[in-house]
Amino acid sequence: MDLFDAICSRASVRAFEKVDISDAQLEQILDAGRRAPSGRNRQPIEFIVIRDAGTLAKLAESQACIAGASVAIAVAGDPERSEFWLEDVSAATENMLLAITALGYASVWIQGTLRALEERHKETLGLPKHMRLVVVLPIARPAGSVKQPDKRALSDIAHWERFGARRP
């Protein structure tokens, strides 16, 4: 799938159909994340690939859909490596979401509901104490049709030269 098609069709999916996702495809997804921009090129991100059903079930305490995934990728940031760790995790996550879509799979950016159980999940994944578990991306085929929700019109959010100035 073309990059712009992936951007226009990517949607958050929480209902999955389990499928076999090859290591080669997972490496493509991870490589897309690795290639994201990084502040001062410090690269404070780490990825944990999770296939084990028991581990997925434990992570599903944050959001139930994780248990229905074929695989999940946990994205962690290391605040000791860079002050830009959160931005770098975010950029890597978006790259991986687009790669997941381009490969014909679906996912959802799980972050907010993860926060309350971060310490428990860090222990489950063996993540060092100083690191932050920021995102979990469950990956599988969507269980139904996927449509990107409506977005604000570009003309409503794009400003030219100064805030409030519209395109000439």
How many helices? The count is: 7
Find the CATH superfamily.
NADH Oxidase
> What is the CATH domain class?
Alpha Beta
Described by the principal axes of the CA atoms, the overall outline is globular
Q: Please, what is the average pLDDT?
A: 97
At the fold tier of CATH, the topology name is NADH Oxidase
**Spans of at least 5 consecutive residues with low confidence:** none
- Could you give a short account of the major beta sheet? 3 strands, antiparallel
CATH architecture: 3-Layer(aba) Sandwich
Estimate what percentage of residues fall within beta strands: 5-15%
Distance between the termini: 34 Å
How many domain regions?
1
Strand order of the largest sheet: 2-3-4
Q: What's the number of extended β-strand segments?
A: 5
Helix coverage percent of residues? 25-40%
Rg from Cα: 17 Å
The string of secondary-structure elements, in order, is HEHEHEHHHEEH
Backbone structural class: alpha+beta
Descriptive overview:
It is globular and about 55 Å long. It has seven helices and five strands. The protein has helices at residues 3-9, 23-34, 53-59, 85-102, 112-115, 118-125, 154-157; strands spanning 16-17, 45-50, 71-77, 132-139, 141-142. 28% of the residues are buried. The chain has one domain: NADH Oxidase, CATH 3.40.109. The longest helix is centred in the middle third of the chain and has 18 residues, at 85-102. The chain has 168 residues and is α+β, with helices and mostly antiparallel strands.
